[in-house]
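Hey, resending since the last one bounced:
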Amino acid sequence: MKVEFADSFWESLKTMSRHQTWWYKTYELFRYKIPYFFENIWYFRKELWEHRSWDYTYSLAMLRRSLTKLAHTLEFYGWEVEDSRMKKVNDIKRAIQLIDNLREADYINQAELELGELKNTDWDRDDTPEEREHNAKVFKRAHEIEESNWKELWKILKGNKNRGMRGWWD
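The structure tokens again:
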């Protein structure tokens, strides 16, 4: 069996070699890297302005913003087959929704919709045992909803064998 290389192989080697030269790296810096740097600063300006290192919700805001752009790009400009591409887009949109839920921390209201409103929210007077029991159920359910959202978010990001965050760019 005779093995031959196509002309495109040798062209690829030339291109790879050229990309390692100092003049191409200088060109790449001014043509791509600096413009993308300023584009990213503009795109993430609100998140950068508000970012603080002491709370994870600020990091979630950065992730949310990044996923928003990724979902838009995949949905409208992706070259992948529509069925698998839209599964990824739906996963990303669900992750965005879960991040919004975690950042808003509106779990008490969600639990109240399921179990009824908190009893005796006037904290100056003593609760009856029934009110305490009901309120404990509402708080417990709110915590369960938060935990399930947190676990679902990481399940989406981690994914299984062929999916998850690492597969969104395939």
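The chain has seven helices and no strands.

Sorry for the duplicate.
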